[in-house]
Design brief:
There is one protein chain. By secondary structure, the protein is α+β, with helices and mostly antiparallel strands. Helices cover about 15% and strands about 35% of the residues. The protein is built from five helices and 13 strands. Strands 2-1-7-8-13 form a five-stranded antiparallel β-sheet, with no helix packed on it. A five-stranded mixed beta barrel has the order 3-4-10-9-6. Strand 7 and strand 8 form a beta hairpin. The longest helix is centred in the middle third of the chain and has 9 residues. The protein is globular.
Amino acid sequence: MIDRYSITASAAKIYERFRADVLPSYTANYNAAPTHLLPVITHSTPHGVSTFYWGTSPEWSKNKPLSEKIINVRVENILEKPTLKKAMMKTRCIIPADGFYAWKKVGRKTAIPYRFVATDEELFSFAGMWEEYEDSDGHELHTFTLITTTANEMVATVQERMPVMLTRNAEKIWMEKESNEGDLINALLPYAAEKMNYYPVSPRINDSTVNVPSLIVPTPPADQFGNLTLFD
């Protein structure tokens, strides 16, 4: 499961990379987590950055609170479920990012957080899908979920899944309104390991309320309790 990532670039950098206008309310997020309002670009309105909540509502439980919503959808499930294929065709989006986090288990009670980035340390995008729905109080909300795939060789040293990081070409296909189902599925591949780096970060990343620049600074491997470990 992917439940943390970072988007730390300025609004100007996001515009330069995606050619999409950024809302004045945008702020960098070093610890993007489920239920947070985060920048999203939909394939139907590619020239503007929206802010959606992370966590979509399952088809059968529209009134679930945000904390119970689906944050990841597997590529394999899109192939198997007609409702997900339909969503892929109608409500695709990309999620601007510059890194994601994963935890490596090195003991029954020990997990080390790592941050994965592109080797050029530039902005990239995750593939996602979004939805619009009403909560139990009748308020209209927009939410999104990240699409995940099998981990590449690098990420697999930490965990089995990774978000779909789109190459520039795959991003173009994902955002193209006329792309067909086959082209879209073929764009959802694991990112090349040789184009990525990773390093351990502070266990403070476990707390979704912490959002400070020091979270992305390389830190000696430590478990979730802050204890230094020899494992790496």
